[in-house]
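Hi all, a correction to my earlier message: I attached the wrong file for Branched-chain amino acid ABC transporter permease. Here's the right sequence:
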Amino acid sequence: MKTFASRHSGLLILALVLAVLPLALPNSYYYDVAIRIALNAMVVIGLNLLMGYTGQISLGHAGFFGMGAYASAVLTTHYNWPPVAALAAGAAATGLLALVLARPVLKLKGHTLAMATLGLGIIISIVINNEGQWTGGPDGIAVPGFAVFGFEITGEKSWYAVAAALLLLVTWFALNLIDSPVGRALQAIHGSEVASRVAGIDTTRFKVRVFVLSAVVASIAGSISAHYIGFITPNMAGFFHSIELVTMVVVGGMASVFGSILGAALLTVLPQLLSAFEGWEVVVFGAILMLTMIFLPRGLVPSLARRRGKPAAGSGAAPLKLVKKAGGGHA
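and the right structure:
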């Protein structure tokens, strides 16, 4: 039996880094970047459970992120809902939409699945743009602060503590999920959906569950982001944001929880660093991504771990032997 420390050494290291990091953040700008990294990493971990571990691509996750953000904005601004209730309502609505659409959408595979999820994201973005009386349309909408039981979260240190705690919670949940029979079933589906069915795994049920889970995580991160930023626009639900999230998964490492965090950190910080290349930052950004995919095709964390001759912490392949472990099949 693995001990807690051996199974979650990466989580303990992450907790230590998050606890010590404020000592190295000199001003509010760096706190802002750290908070955005943590919120992006939450979404990317959920998306990696769907893409990296289950093998189901989604190009519309920014739509779920936007649904959470706009649910919080509309319900708190127009109806004076408490922020926590608005966040919960947004997560529930997003989860319900994902549940309704998951079965027909996840019957598709490959590029057809990618196009279907892309279409879903575009529809959500169009609705947000067109319903200007509620959402502010292309001009965006202001979002009040986040308060819990009358206590409002203010200041970069408080927001950093909230974002860091949520990131730790999502990371812990993902690691435990991966190490459970459900996680082994997801990896078996990625390895071979046909073999998984033969072993008795209800592949449709598992794919629907992870799709809904990843959508709800994205919605919660969207709600928190909306309250933190204080003003949102439809761009956060747009196609380019979805591509950015997928790129974070791929660059950090497919089927790697800590690769998700690294990918979110790199692609959140990199545009800031490339601002010096005035007019050429997009070209340099694209070149860096291209070189990463050429020389580290599995993503940064799995590729570097493989070169060191050991599996990355929080990572999982999808070997067919997992089918036998996950079979019998009703995890």
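Sorry for the mix-up. The chain has 16 helices and four strands.
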